[in-house]
Hints:
By secondary structure, this protein is of the alpha+beta class. 41% of the residues lie in helices and 19% in strands.
Amino acid sequence: xxxxxxxxxxxxxxxxxxxxxxxxxxxxxxxxxxxxxxxxxxxxxxxxxxxxxxxxxxxxxxxxxxxxxxxxxxxxxxxxxxxxxxxxxxxxxxxxxxxxxxxxxxxxxxxxxxxxxxxxxxxxxxxxxxxxxxxxxxxxxxxxxxxxxxxxxxxxxxxxxxxxxxxxxxxxxxxxxxxxx
Length: 181
């Protein structure tokens, strides 16, 4: 599927899930400005996604950012500027929407690069928006994340994949909501 250039290990086998921090929105704004300054017009979109973008939701204290570029497979068009801005490429997934993930350390951030028109951008936005709308699914997702954080994991990706079934259930309700049902 892809290539983890630098697999993110779970520190001590654990994934930290903490209470929502309202400062995350400000941290995102600072990082978004840094990305836009680095890329200029090549940054077609910069959005706050993931659990830190949902007020009230417990999360890993890592800001998830979706970056839309013309062609995420064309790393030469954007990766050097991101690296100069302090991000390092850690995942390359040509078989999954040509996804690239860059890691920022100060503050902790995952910068996901996708091509314009990629359906994953809409899916991540829908998940965020639904969790902002549905207190029941927000609570379900928070419980799931906290329960999984109690287990030992080799990598953070293992933890993320363990959430898959619940995420699928939540997205099904989100899709019905978005379709007006």
